[in-house]
Write a structure and sequence with these properties.
four-stranded antiparallel barrel, 6 strands, 3 helices, 167 residues, alpha+beta, single chain
Length: 167
């Protein structure tokens, strides 16, 4: 599944931006959906070319401005970021920081209709041994949190590994 490292633009923040910038001038009776869409288009116009993907954020699809995209077939996001593969330049980052709140930087699962949410992928096919128990595959109470969530994501150069050693 595809993992996106970036910042979501929440609908509440988009509405605040639209009202503050008066982005929907032509229709004083514009609804929230029109204001949110106007904000998304305005932000894209302000920052330039940056991958923007619909991702799962707290069980809801949200727009995420991607600093890094991992198109692998991994259940978990990668532990390391390779600087050469970053999708956002420093200039785009500075522009993004000026036009929207950068909160909740993190890994988000791309909203791909052909795959399942990572929280729902607990049981292996044919494994019914823990059926009816209150624990999930991690052995915790099924809160959807992984033990690897506290592991930091590091940014490494392409010719160095995570420990800083050259190849």
């Amino acid at each position: 599944m595809t993992w996106v490292f970036g910042w979501p633009l929440y609908n509440d923040d988009a509405l605040k931006i639209a009202k503050r910038r008066n982005l929907v001038k032509s229709d004083p009776n514009a609804g929230d959906d029109q204001r949110i869409q106007a904000t998304r288009l305005w932000v894209a116009d302000q920052i330039g070319i940056v991958p923007v993907l619909s991702c799962w954020v707290d069980d809801f699809p949200e727009i995420v401005y991607a600093a890094y995209v991992d198109y692998g077939d991994n259940r978990y996001p990668p532990p390391d970021l390779i600087r050469e593969n970053m999708t956002m330049s420093g200039k785009n980052y500075r522009r993004l920081k000026k036009v929207m709140p950068l909160k909740d930087l993190g890994w988000y699962q791309y909203n791909d209709p052909s795959c399942e949410l990572y929280k729902e992928m607990g049981d292996e096919e044919g494994d019914d041994s823990d059926e009816g128990s209150a624990t999930d595959i991690d052995g915790d109470a099924g809160d959807g949190e992984d033990d690897d969530d506290d592991a930091p994501t590091t940014i490494v150069d392409d010719d160095k590994d995570a420990a800083g050693k050259r190849h």
